[in-house]
Design a protein that fits this description.
By secondary structure, the chain is mostly helical. The protein has three domains: 147 residues, Tetratricopeptide repeat domain (Serine Threonine Protein Phosphatase 5, Tetratricopeptide repeat, Alpha Horseshoe); 124 residues, Serine Threonine Protein Phosphatase 5, Tetratricopeptide repeat, CATH 1.25.40.10; 94 residues, Alpha Horseshoe (Serine Threonine Protein Phosphatase 5, Tetratricopeptide repeat), CATH 1.25.40. It has 20 helices and no strands.
């Protein structure tokens, strides 16, 4: 039981920054000042704090954290006095970006919106800075699972960049990558792959073969291949991305942890459990130290490691990791995010495996409800949830309920993933196993044969989630994730 979800430990969308910073000094407002003097003081303060606020990258997080209260105070001044100048927009964007990086999504969103409004008013509708604001607003929607709201700002940002900077600029590659990642999160693989490939080509040509953005592109394309069961194509991309990050960013950088998670997940997909465990453990250690114990990426690593233990029937080790991951996600990014569905699904699957059906059923149902609402009724995650709930019913002798869920899961996967995807083989085996158990051999045989034919074409476990035995259909999601790049 591991996870697949809205993003992977492939570098997901990239957040954009603007400008540099120097130290600042301000003075408190004085009694008796005129309105004009107060406005002049407020403007001076906004400009000074903007100068001091550094680019939001990992190395500057300590300084950013100290300056966030000043940035928020300046946001109030910008609103109170109606300031509309570029430095005000930059400060709003950088303060929002730091909140975003620390998974404070509800705080980041209004800051991005206000920065965007100032940029559009001052610079016009086609300026590259407006694309930065649109990109970052889309990213915060994306991070909260608001996919429909994210698509338009991604598309508009990309159009502005292509017009202003030319089609081969690295910033255009960022826009392509982000839009592709949105499509991947929705299971739109055919739309995502050419965008990822174009972004990768631009970065390698413009930035060189060892730039961190190239690692982003390699990871994203690898994730797309992994989700389609193309493991041999994914592995060299992940290995190259990890090598770039370790060399350029250092061994303790959060992006290294994300590459480790991605590589571990691929190992697990291929049944290489001994190789996966130390990679997951190293990733978790890096993230807890660099990001803090309640960051969403920590939840991802907790779920991934728990999934590995689940697959080895080490249930006592898996349960506290899953519970901790669920608690983090219900807090950030929130109880209706698709990732909460992953945590609910995985904890339910753990209980099912131990025969705790009463505890498992409401969790499976809760996961399905979240996914259907957030992702739509034909998303691959919905099919996984249907398979798992069907297995629960089958084990309790509720065959009619199980059969309809298995059939719906198979229909979704054939449409979303194609007729030869490993997950289709899983669903074929699951439905065949139900018929076999009820001695409906004529109905079971062609399903088994088709599932076997698919499995022989894909290396590793017969089903991409590790479910190979038809008498044990259903399995949990796999997950890996990457934070926003800077």
């Amino acid at each position: 039981m591991s996870q697949t979800t809205a993003r992977e430990v492939v570098r997901t969308p990239q957040v954009e920054t603007a400008g540099t910073a120097t130290p600042f000094a301000t003075m408190p407002i004085q009694d008796g000042w005129t309105r004009k003097e107060q406005r002049q003081w407020a403007e001076h303060t906004v400009r000074a704090v903007n100068q001091a606020f550094p680019p939001v990258k990992f190395a500057n997080w300590t300084q950013c954290e100290r300056l966030v209260p000043h940035g928020l105070a300046c946001a109030a001044l910008i609103d109170a006095y109606g300031f509309e100048f570029v430095e005000a927009a930059r400060l709003l964007n950088e303060t929002g970006l730091y909140m975003h990086r620390r998974a404070r999504f509800s705080d980041a969103e209004p800051l991005y919106q206000r920065a965007l409004a100032v940029w559009e008013k001052v610079l016009g509708p086609d300026h590259p800075s407006l694309a930065t604001g649109l990109n970052n607003l889309a990213l915060v929607y994306h991070a909260q699972g608001k996919y429909a709201r994210a698509e338009w700002p991604y598309q508009r940002a990309l159009a502005i960049k292509e017009k202003a900077l030319g089609p081969d600029h690295p910033s255009v590659a960022t826009g392509l990558n982000n839009l592709a990642e949105l499509y991947r999160a929705q299971g739109k693989y055919g739309q995502a792959e050419p965008l990822f490939r174009r972004a990768l080509a631009i970065w390698e040509k413009a930035l060189g073969p060892e730039h961190p953005n190239l690692a982003t592109g390699l990871n994203n394309l690898a994730k797309l291949y992994r989700e389609q069961g193309k493991y041999a194509e994914a592995e060299p991309l992940l290995q190259r991305a990890l090598a770039i990050r370790e060399k350029v960013l250092g061994l303790q950088h959060p992006d290294v942890a994300q590459s480790l998670n991605n590589l571990a997940l691929l190992c697990r997909n291929r049944g290489w459990h001994a190789q996966a465990e130390p990679l997951y453990q190293r990733a978790l250690t890096i993230q807890e130290k660099a990001l803090g114990p309640e960051h969403p990426d920590v939840a991802t690593s907790l779920n991934n490691l728990a999934g590995l233990y689940y697959g080895r029937r080490m249930y006592a080790q898996a349960e506290p990791l899953l519970q901790r991951g669920l608690a983090i996600r219900e807090k950030v990014p929130g109880p209706e995010h698709p990732d909460v569905g992953i945590s609910l699904n995985n904890l339910a699957e753990l209980y099912r495996a131990q025969g705790k059906y009463g505890q498992a059923e409401p969790l499976f149902q809760g996961a399905l409800a979240i996914w259907e609402k957030a992702l739509g009724p034909e998303h691959p995650n919905v099919a996984t949830g249907l398979n798992n709930l069907a297995r629960l019913y089958r084990e309790q002798g509720k065959y009619a309920e199980a059969e309809s869920l298995y059939q719906r899961a198979l229909t979704i996967q054939e449409k979303a993933l194609g007729p030869e995807h490993p997950d289709v083989a899983t669903s074929l085996n699951n439905l065949a196993g139900l018929y076999y158990g009820r001695r409906k051999y004529a109905q079971a045989e062609p399903l088994f044969q088709r599932g076997l034919a698919i499995g022989e074409k894909v290396p590793g476990p017969a089903a991409s989630r590790g479910c190979s035995e038809p008498q044990q259909p259903g399995c949990a999601l796999q997950e890996s994730r990457e934070v926003h790049a800077g």
